[in-house]
Structures are given as structure tokens and as C-alpha cells.
Amino acid sequence: MARCAAEACGRWCPELLVRRGVGTSVDGFWFCSKACVEHMARRRLIEARPVAAGIPTVPPMRLGALLRHHGLCGAEAIEQALQAQRGSQLKLGEQLCAMGAAERQGVLRVLAAQAGVGYLASVDVAGVREGPGGLSPHAVRALGLVPISGVEEGRIRVACPAPVPRRALSALRRLTGWVPEPYLVSDDDWHALVRNYGADVDEDAPGRSPAEFVQTASLSDAAARIAAAATRGRDTTVTEARWEPYTWVRVQGGGMVEDVLLARATDTGSNEEVPCQAATTSH
Ligand SMILES: [Zn+2]
What are the pLDDT digits (tens) for 69-98? Predict the structure, then answer.
């Protein structure tokens, strides 16, 4: 006999019927119905713990001080840039470049060294049109990471603007099992990469479609989507990662991959535990 793993259910079912395909197996647990999978999905969305930010960085020195230290621009230029920033809302590095007071590559190099990651002075925008890594362009936007290579020996190169989104990197690692190698790019290059990622993917070509992707701000909707995806396959796995303001759930099984991205749910319900938001202060 198999027993439904949903807490509130616990229904028994003869093994013979389970083998014939009654119910659904998720992560090795048997569920009698889609409603019970949905119940499980809801609990997991609520209880998902925030991912760790990975290796902590050394206390960051201010960019202006670093640039001065490396002789990349003078104190006066930094003072002017800080003032101009108030009107322009640009990041300090971008502001200095816009004023012609610093070289973009120098700023990138300093920011990358500070974050302990690599940087790319120029990017191959055409190379991401095929959507390396097979993520949805929506997932790429939410993560703030653009895969710029295929997966090689479990590693994937990703581009990001400063500051390095460390929690998103941890989430990507947990959800896909890949080890992401981040490279800083300029804000302009970043926007070009995002615009082009996956633009040439033919979703109808066999084996070429990126992961199915749904983004929602409703916990109930997210749970229903997860249950629908999980019950479509026979033996599926569900993996979740939370990094504010997102909870990303990946459902996989039988060659199917579906990503459900829940963005700051408002309908967690008064009788349900409110998702933990205390442990999310940024590094
Ligand atoms: Zn059940």
C-alpha cells in the first residue's frame, strides 16, 4: 500500500494501482491527487528558506577610493561625479564614464577585483541569441544573470552587472545543479545581453525549447502551476530556491522542465505561516 504524502490527506492506495499510474510521484513521495500535490507545493512555497549568498566578500572599499588608489581617476572628478549622481541616478562608475573621467574597462576591472570575479570588457551579444543554458528570457531578467556559454563539465559562464547578485547565483546553482562562473559587464552590455538572450530560439524545434516558464505574484496560482506540471509527468522532482523578492521552483521529469517564479506573494493567507523575510538582509 502507498500512502498519500500530503499531511491533511494520508489516503491509502494499493501498490498495484500506484504502478498503473494512479496518483503522482514527486521526489519519491506518492500523492493521491493533484489537489494533494498542490497542497504540498503551497507549503513548500511558504517554507522555502532563502539561499545563502555564497562566499562572503571582503568588506567593500568604496569604489571612488579604489579608483583613486589604482590611479584611474582623481579626487576632484569623483567629487564632481558624486554631485552629478544626485541628478542622474547613475551608479558612480557609470557616472564617471559618462563624464569621461574614467575608462569603462578600468571601472569594470576594479569592481570585478573587489567582488572577486572576472569581467568582460566586451561581450558577444550574438552568442546569446541561441539562449545558452536553455533558460527562459524571463528567468534571466529575474535572476539578473545571462548565461553566455553552454554548460561545460557542470559549469556555466554568466554575465551580470555590478553588484554581483550573489543570492541569484546561489539560486541558479541550486535549481540547475550547474556551477555558475560570474563575469561583470558594463550596464550597457548587460542591457544588450538581456535584449538578445534567446531571441533566435525556435521554441517549436524538437529539443530546442527553453524551460517552460510562468511568473506569478499569487501563491495559489504558483502552487496550482507546480501541481499541474508535477502531475503531467510520472516521477517528477520539485526544487525550490528563494531569494528576495522571488521564490523559484523547478519541476522536472521525463524530459520536461517547468520553472515557476513566484514574485512576492500577497495571498499567503492569514492562517498560513508568513514566509520568513527576516533573514534576507543583503551582504
Ligand atoms: Zn492525498
Answer: 888 888 899 899 889 988 888 888 888 888
Q: What is the residue extent of each domain of the chain?
A: 2-51+208-280, 63-115, 124-196
For 91-112, the pLDDT digits (tens) are: 888 888 889 888 888 889 988 9
Give the DSSP H/E element, type plus range, for residue 171.
helix 166-176
| DSSP β-ladder status, 179-184 and 118-119 | parallel
Q: What is the CA radius of gyration of the chain?
A: 22
C-alpha closest to that of 161 among 117, 126, 196, 98: 117
Query: Cα separation of 13 and 267, whole Å?
Result: 33
Q: Which residues of 80-108 are buried (b: 16+ CB within 10 A; e: fewer)?
A: ebeebbeeeebbbbbbbbeeebbebebbb
Question: Ligand 1 centroid to 10 CA: how many Å?
Answer: 6
Question: What's the gap in Å between 33 CA and the centre of ligand 1?
Answer: 5
**Distance between Cα 32 and ligand 1 center (Å):** 4
Angle between helix 219-232 and 34-47 (nearest 10): 130
- Please tell me the distance between residue 229's alpha carbon and the centre of ligand 1 in angstroms: 17
Query: How many residues are there in the chain?
Result: 283
Q: Return the CATH fold of 124-196.
A: GMP Synthetase; Chain A, domain 3 (3.30.300)
| CA 5–ligand 1 middle distance (angstroms) | 7
Contacts of 88 (CB under 8 A, 6+ apart): 95, 98
